Amino acid sequence: MLWRTIAHIEELKGQWIAGARLSPQALGRLKKSVLITSTGASTRIEGAKLSDEEVERLMRGLKTRKSTDRDEQEVRGYYELLERVFEGWKRMLFSEDGIKRFHQDLLQYVKKDAVHRGKYKTEENRVVMVDPSGKSVGVLFEATPPHYTSQEMWELIAWTSRALGERVHHPLLVIGNFIVEFLAIHPFQDGNGRISRALTNLLLLKEGYEYMPYVSHEKLIEDNKPEYYVALRTSQKTFIRDHAPDFNPHKKETIEPWLAFFFSVLEEQAAQAVELLSKENIEKILSQKQLLVWAYIESVPE
User: Fold this and answer.
1) Is 208 known to sit in a ligand binding site?
2) What are the φ and ψ backbone dihedral angles of 287, each rounded to 5 degrees?
3) What is the predicted pLDDT for the residue at 253?
4) Could you say which of 47, 140, 196, 232 is the most buried, measured as most Cβ atoms within 10 Å of its Cβ?
5) Which residues form the Fido domain (predicted)?
6) Is 193 a known ligand-binding residue?
7) Do the annotations mark residue 191 as ligand-binding?
8) Higher model confidence: residue 299 or residue 9?
C-alpha cells in the first residue's frame, strides 16, 4: 500500500515537472497565497487563533482585532521562516546548525521565548493535543529528556543525511522517518511542530518536489488534525526508548501508521499541484478563504 502511494506521488511529481507552464506572475501570487494559508494553518494547529484573512492583514501591517501579541509574534515568525525556505531552499543545508537557526528565526518575535531561541530544551516537555480554543486536551507522548536530546538529534540528523545521500531508501521514507523521530524527541522547549513542518517543506523541495510552495502542506495537516495526532501517537508509542519509564526492548517498532498518513497528505498535495497546471483550475482548488487572499494578491501590483 505504501509503495503504491509513493509510486503515485512520483507519477504526479513527473506530471508537474513536465507540465509546469503557469506564468511567473501566477506562480508568484500562488506562492504568496500559500505563505498566508500555511502560516495560518501551522500556527492554528498549535493553538493560535488567527484566520487566514487576519494573517493576511497582519502581514500587510494592519492590526487585527482579536489577536494576542503572541499570536501575532508566532505568525510573523513562521511566515518569514517559510518565505525564506521557499525563496532560498537551494542554498540551505540540512544540518544541526540549520535546524537551530530555523528555531531562532521562528521565535524571533516571541519575547517570552528569547532565552531559548535556537537552543535545545533544558526542561522536560510533553507532546500535547490542543483543541480549537488552544486548550490542552491530553498528553500524547512523553518526549526525550533534555540530557539525551543533543545526542539523539545528532544521530537522527546524521542518519537522515546519510540515507538521503546513499539513496538506498526512497527519500519519502527517509523524510517521513525524520519527521516522526524529530517530533518524538521534541528537541526544543516550544515550536517543535512548526519547525517540523518548515523542515518538511525544505527537505521535499531539496528532493525535487518543487510544487511545495504552490499547495499548502500545512493546510492539509490542519484539515486532518485528529488523524495527524493519531498517526503520530500510534507510531511513537511503539518506539523503544531506553530512557523511558515503560522501557521494553521486545516491542515491535513501526512507523507505518505515520507513513500512511504522511504519504496520503503528500499524495493529495501533489494531486492538487497537478490540477493547478491549468490556470482555470486555480479557483476550483483554492478554498473560499484562499480565494479571498488570492483575489487580494491579484489586485496588488507586482
Assistant:
1) no
2) -70, 170
3) 87
4) 232
5) 94-264
6) yes
7) yes
8) 9
- Which residues lie below 8 Å from residue 221, measured CB to CB, with a gap of 6+? 41, 42, 45, 197, 228, 265
Phi, psi of 135 (to 5 degrees): -85, 140
Residues in the chain, total: 302
Is 281 marked as binding a ligand? no
- The pLDDT assigned to 243 comes to 56
Domain boundaries, the chain: 2-128+137-299
Q: Has 224 been labeled as part of a binding site?
A: no
Is 103 considered catalytic here? no
Q: Residue 130: helix, strand or coil by DSSP?
A: strand
Average pLDDT over residues 44-68: 82
Report the topology of domain 2-128+137-299: Fic-like fold (1.10.3290)
Which residues sit opposite 127 in a β-bridge? 141
- Which of the following is catalytic: 116, 147, 170, 186? 186
Phi–psi pair at 292, nearest 5 degrees = -65, -45
Kindly state the cell numbers that stand for 292.
Answer: 479571498
State the pLDDT at residue 26: 80
Cell 516550544 belongs to 190
pTM given for the model:
0.88
Are the CB atoms for 176 and 254 separated by under 8 Å? no
Residue 61 has a pLDDT of 81
Rounded distance between C-alpha atoms, residue 198 and residue 78, angstroms: 8
Q: What is the pLDDT of residue 76?
A: 93
Q: Is the pLDDT of residue 42 over 90?
A: yes
Residue 128 β-bridge partners? 139
Distance CA(260)–CA(227), nearest Å, equals: 11
Residue 194 annotated in ligand binding: yes
Separation CA 58–CA 56 (nearest Å): 5
Query: Using alpha carbons only, what angle is made at residue 80 by residues 217 and 233, rounded to the nearest 5 degrees?
Result: 40
The more confidently predicted of residues 290 and 273 is 273
DSSP state of 260: H
Cα gap 195→266, rounded to integer Å: 18
Of residues 107 and 134, more confidence is placed in 107
pLDDT tens-digit series, residues 22-40 = 778 888 888 999 999 999 9
